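Worked example 3 (structure in, sequence out).
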């Protein structure tokens, strides 16, 4: 056997007929058919396979394994020192599996390098978890060293597996590994209820719920078993698939070049730059199966689902690439009205900029570790960062370097390639709360120029992609770095961090290789600029457009200064200035953390984080405001492919005007004109829009320079969109090319209320070095303190399931504190909340009810009426446009509210956070404010309303729908109120509040998958739910697999299945007992149309956002997307645990899950995708197949 063949031998067939495998084999089998086939064929010695794959084999990096072993050995010594040799043992006998089982039976607290094996079918797994930890022991880093300490709860005869990885963040293959260990322990009957985990090189512990990792492993293992069984003695090389239908990098394949060559050999359409899967599917169905065929296709052969402009674009791209294959010479064409015409002329002070980021950094958001800059002189200037504090300083140093250079030369610009740099700078400014105004000015001034946008707006090239490395063929650039691409640079930097962690030699050389790669990108960017400058027409219209920008800016300032929702208004500029003012005001607070010794004491670190959270709470509302306008600026100038990836934007090239514009001849250029457009979504597009939603309508001024008007979605039906645009006569002929989200709600008096409260709390606290001794609900919320009680020693325990009595007693005894009530679906949190409020009102208490939406507020208020609260003791302002009758008083102004409250005691007031922060509401402080749907209510809004209350009571569930924020906020203040209070816990801890563990909605058979998915199997059904049964079908989850391809946001195949199911169930139950849920508006609209056509107009259909709080005997869920690659916003949205929970838990008896089987196939590109696949497979494991 060759050396390469020996190295490749991961999967192995044994003489017994069993196959051994590893996690890499699982990742292959799950998402890469040709990769798995070749690995099996190679092991079976299928003629020709070994010779073929050895030509394309890529040597994997092995040094990281060496360093990982050294890390494991260091941890071994730490645990040995902590526990002693009796409590920390390693199997020593020859048969290490039997020895491992023996040690577990002897109840050794921690077993190092134990040996586990497990056979399923013809597959056998053998592995050594680094640590097997007994169920009543808990790993913990203390003073930087790994320890294992006994805890009160836990099984003494069961174990949980841990693996040590020198990497800074968990990766998919790590999760598959510990999932295999968990499954092997379960087969032995020795698996603890504890969660398996990873010990990271950052010396942090990360655990994973088994429901989020084990089902994905089982699915991949099943796929591997099926792949092996598909082979026979007659299998030939020609029977195998040699390529994937996607150009995505396959990180689990040793021979990606083989895949690329095979696609080249068959002239696959996927090679065309910019083409998407849906277009490929439509072209293939029309008989256009190769790039060459598309290059010569006639206009008449265009598939009807692809617009004329899109067809012409991909056809021209195919022709350019086909010509290159024939001549082996690169070529390009200059587009009409190219953006190079407004490319700024060269300046000797120009900067060519590129950043390197590390997504595996242990803290949320990754790490921006290298800011590289090449000057025209050839000098390279780099700023490095290897932790969060260094990142902040490197960002500050870089911005100072840049600002100084640009201020000295007004003609100088900063050039970069693609949007990463702008996005990263905005993210850094928000993350660290510094230089936000400077970044905003740098971007909005046009001094940062994205050459990717210039390329896409100026030329088409004969290359298979528009990456800068592919463009280098046009300007003869040669790289000096050994690092090949961005993915490799991430791996190299991960390797560098491992070397540093262990103090190994060679780290400086590794970092130099990464730096050389970054410098190559910077120099290449400069060479690209020079080449673009040399093209015909470059720079010709630059001065013209600069003058036009100045004129427009002055006009906008005059005409929109009073319009608060304009990005050019005085309001937007004021938001920037106000943010800077508040930052200066909080600077002294932040100074208290200068030099903080992070990592020495976890309790002190948490105090520091809360201190920091308080400072950023003051900035929250202004930062939301500022980021909104920055997002507008980014989307205004984004390329079409960037907008295609933006879930809040929609490219509308080819939209048609529905308005008659002939009547406007001779009018004033500034005359307002309302225009209406029609657009039909292309294959692969998905719409974010809802009827009457406000939008920005983007149009081109020429030379790929964009501007926007205001607009609104008039109707959204299936794939058809009708929208209007508020244009001017002067620009009405400029056709829209994109629309994107526009939403602005003024914060009212909340910033002032929060600012005053924060200053008061900081003054009482004094210093983050001290433990705060402040009796205030906001501090208990932030510090996650258990509820403070007046007389009771602890929260009362429910007796015989009577949560209401215990909760009422606890609420009445609150002492300026907080109490949380976690209410899973159907558990009666609204019932409990309303009955507690009734008791408070009877005792003369002033009670507020607040939530994000008027419907949630009024839902709880109606429940209060049912509980017996008198209508005259309840009041709420009616939402504008709501003409429905109310059961309570409806004062029309805040002043009227004040007068009513002044003459009463013992009442309920409903309102939003805006209401409770109005000065009139502060005239008489509330005894209690109940926050409903507290998992959707922002932490900062909760702090704001706490200024007007003695106590806060949270009603909600972080495992259902959660809040959405506009911006990234430092200090953790972008969390929800209940999400922050509960931290990482899935179930509210008993000392912190109450988990309502009984659902009165779901039959036990439909509750089981919900409880497993979201509540660690702790949610149970009330006995009365056993009556929730539909005749003819057993209760529970029913899987309906529907084959389809290349569908993204809508599937006619699934819609047809949904209608058939609905017909059957409506005949039994009536339309009110059937709900249809889909993740995307396009599928909702399609199903709505088809239900109406089938005479089922009264069957409700919508997204989960519409149905939280609703229930029906039967729920039908349609997932729509054909595969992971087709899913808009990715699998982590489509298979989001919270959204799945809400969808399925609407059902009282049955939930039909309609899905494409291809959704279960994934390459596990990240751990979120692996978790998503686990959720789906976990549900399918508990579902019965459709009859």
């Amino acid at each position: 056997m060759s050396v390469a063949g020996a190295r490749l031998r991961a999967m192995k067939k044994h003489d017994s007929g069993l196959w051994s495998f590893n996690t890499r084999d699982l990742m292959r089998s799950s998402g890469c058919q040709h990769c798995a086939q070749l690995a099996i064929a190679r092991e079976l010695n299928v003629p020709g396979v070994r010779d073929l794959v050895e030509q394309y084999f890529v040597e994997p990096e092995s040094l990281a394994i060496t360093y990982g072993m050294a890390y494991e050995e260091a941890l071994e010594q730490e645990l040995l020192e902590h526990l002693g040799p009796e409590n920390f043992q390693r199997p020593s006998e020859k048969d290490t599996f039997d020895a491992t089982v023996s040690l577990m039976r002897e109840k050794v607290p921690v077993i190092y390098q134990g040996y586990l094996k497990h056979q399923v079918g013809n597959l056998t797994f053998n592995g050594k978890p680094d640590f097997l930890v007994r169920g009543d022991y808990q790993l913990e880093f203390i003073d930087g060293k790994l320890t294992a300490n006994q805890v009160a709860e836990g099984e003494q005869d069961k174990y949980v597996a841990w693996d040590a990885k020198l990497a800074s963040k968990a990766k998919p293959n790590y999760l598959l590994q510990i999932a295999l260990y968990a499954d092997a322990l379960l087969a032995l009957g020795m698996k603890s209820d504890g969660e398996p985990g990873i010990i990271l090189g950052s010396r942090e512990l990360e655990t994973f719920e088994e429901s989020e990792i084990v089902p994905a492993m089982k699915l991949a293992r099943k796929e591997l078993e099926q792949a092996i069984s598909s082979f026979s003695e007659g299998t030939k090389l020609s029977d195998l698939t040699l390529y994937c239908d996607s150009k995505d990098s396959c990180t689990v394949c040793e021979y990606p070049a083989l895949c690329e060559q095979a696609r080249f050999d068959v002239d696959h359409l996927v090679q065309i730059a910019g083409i998407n899967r849906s277009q490929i599917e439509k072209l293939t169905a029309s008989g256009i199966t190769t790039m060459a065929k598309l290059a010569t296709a006639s206009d008449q052969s265009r598939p009807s689902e692809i617009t004329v402009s899109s067809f012409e674009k991909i056809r021209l791209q195919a022709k350019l690439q086909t010509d290159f294959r024939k001549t082996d010479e690169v070529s390009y064409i200059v587009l009409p009205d190219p953006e190079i015409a407004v490319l700024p002329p060269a300046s000797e002070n120009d900067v060519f900029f590129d950043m390197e980021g590390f997504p595996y950094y242990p803290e949320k958001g990754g790490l921006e570790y290298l800011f590289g800059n090449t000057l025209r002189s050839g000098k390279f200037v780099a700023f490095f960062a290897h932790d969060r504090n260094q990142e902040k300083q490197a960002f500050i140093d870089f911005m100072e370097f840049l600002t100084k250079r640009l201020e000295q030369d007004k003609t100088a610009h900063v050039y970069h390639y693609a949007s990463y740099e702008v996005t990263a700078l905005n993210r850094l400014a928000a993350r660290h709360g510094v230089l936000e105004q400077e970044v905003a000015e740098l971007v909005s001034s046009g001094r940062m120029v994205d050459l990717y946008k210039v390329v896409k707006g100026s030329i088409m090239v004969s290359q298979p992609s528009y990456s800068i490395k592919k463009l280098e063929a046009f300007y003869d650039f040669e790289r000096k770095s050994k690092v090949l691409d961005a993915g490799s640079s991430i791996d190299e930097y991960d390797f560098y961090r491992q070397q540093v962690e262990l103090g190994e030699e060679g780290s400086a050389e590794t970092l130099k290789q990464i730096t050389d790669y970054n410098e190559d990108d910077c120099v290449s960017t400069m060479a690209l600029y020079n080449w673009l400058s040399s093209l015909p027409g470059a720079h010709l219209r630059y001065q013209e457009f600069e003058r036009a920008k100045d004129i427009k800016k002055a006009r906008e300032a005059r005409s929109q200064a009073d319009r608060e929702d304009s990005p050019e208004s005085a309001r937007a500029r004021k938001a920037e200035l106000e943010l800077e003012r508040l930052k200066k005001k909080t600077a002294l607070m932040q100074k208290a953390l200068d030099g903080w010794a992070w990592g020495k004491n976890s309790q002190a670190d948490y105090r520091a984080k809360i201190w920091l959270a308080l400072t950023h709470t003051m900035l929250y509302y202004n930062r939301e405001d500022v980021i909104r306008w920055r997002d507008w600026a980014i989307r205004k100038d984004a390329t079409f492919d960037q907008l295609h990836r933006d879930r809040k934007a929609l490219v509308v090239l080819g939209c048609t005007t529905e308005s008659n514009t002939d009547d406007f001849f001779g009018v004033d250029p500034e005359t307002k004109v309302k225009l209406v457009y029609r657009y039909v979504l292309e294959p692969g597009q998905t719409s974010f829009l809802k009827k009457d939603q406000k939008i920005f309508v983007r149009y081109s001024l020429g030379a790929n320079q964009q501007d926007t008007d205001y607009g609104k979605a008039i109707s959204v039906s299936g794939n058809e969109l009708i929208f209007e645009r508020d244009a001017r006569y002067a620009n009405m002929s400029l056709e829209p090319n994109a629309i994107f989200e526009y939403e602005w709600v003024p914060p009212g008096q909340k910033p002032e209320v929060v600012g005053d409260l924060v200053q008061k709390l900081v003054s009482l606290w004094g210093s983050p070095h001290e433990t705060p001794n402040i009796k205030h609900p906001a501090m208990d919320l932030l510090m996650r303190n258990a509820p403070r009680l007046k007389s009771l020693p602890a929260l009362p325990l429910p007796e015989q399931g009577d949560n209401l009595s215990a909760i009422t007693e606890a609420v009445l005894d609150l002492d300026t504190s907080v109490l949380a009530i976690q209410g899973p679906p159907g558990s009666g949190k609204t019932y409990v909340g309303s009955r507690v409020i009734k008791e408070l009102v009877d005792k003369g208490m002033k009670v507020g009810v607040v939530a994000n939406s008027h419907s949630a507020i009024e839902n709880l208020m109606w429940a209060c009426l049912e509980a017996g609260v008198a209508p005259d003791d309840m009041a709420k302002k009616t939402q504008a446009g709501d003409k429905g009758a109310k059961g309570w008083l409806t004062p029309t102004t805040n002043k009227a509210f004040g007068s009513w409250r002044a003459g009463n005691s013992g009442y309920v007031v409903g309102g939003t956070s805006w209401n409770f922060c109005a000065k009139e509401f502060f005239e008489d402080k509330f005894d209690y404010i109940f926050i409903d749907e507290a998992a959707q209510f922002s932490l900062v809004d909760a702090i704001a309303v706490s200024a007007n209350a003695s106590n806060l009571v949270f009603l909600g569930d972080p495992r259902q729908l959660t809040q959405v924020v506009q911006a990234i906020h430092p200090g953790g203040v972008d969390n929800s109120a209940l999400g922050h209070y509960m931290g990482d816990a899935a179930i509210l801890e008993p000392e912190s509040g109450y988990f309502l563990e009984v659902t009165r909605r779901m039959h036990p058979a439909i509750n089981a998958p919900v409880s497993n998915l979201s509540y660690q199997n702790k949610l149970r059904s009330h006995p009365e739910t056993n009556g929730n049964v539909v005749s003819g079908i057993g209760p529970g989850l029913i899987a309906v697999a529907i084959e389809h391809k290349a569908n993204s946001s809508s599937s006619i195949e699934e819609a047809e299945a949904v209608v058939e199911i609905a017909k059957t169930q409506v005949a039994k139950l009536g339309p009110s007992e059937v709900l249809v849920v889909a993740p995307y508006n396009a599928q909702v609209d399609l199903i709505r149309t088809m239900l109406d056509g089938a005479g089922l107009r009264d069957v409700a259909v919508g997204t989960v956002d519409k149905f939280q709080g609703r229930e029906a005997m039967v729920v039908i869920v349609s997932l729509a997307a054909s595969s992971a690659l087709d899913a808009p916003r990715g699998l982590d949205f489509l298979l989001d645990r919270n959204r799945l929970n809400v969808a399925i838990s609407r059902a009282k008896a049955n939930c039909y899950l309609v899905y494409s089987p291809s959704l279960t196939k994934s390459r596990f590109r990240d751990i979120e995708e692996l978790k998503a696949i686990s959720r789906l497979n976990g549900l399918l494991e508990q579902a019965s197949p459709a009859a």
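Notes: The first helix runs from residue 3 to 8. The chain is about 40% helix and 15% strand.
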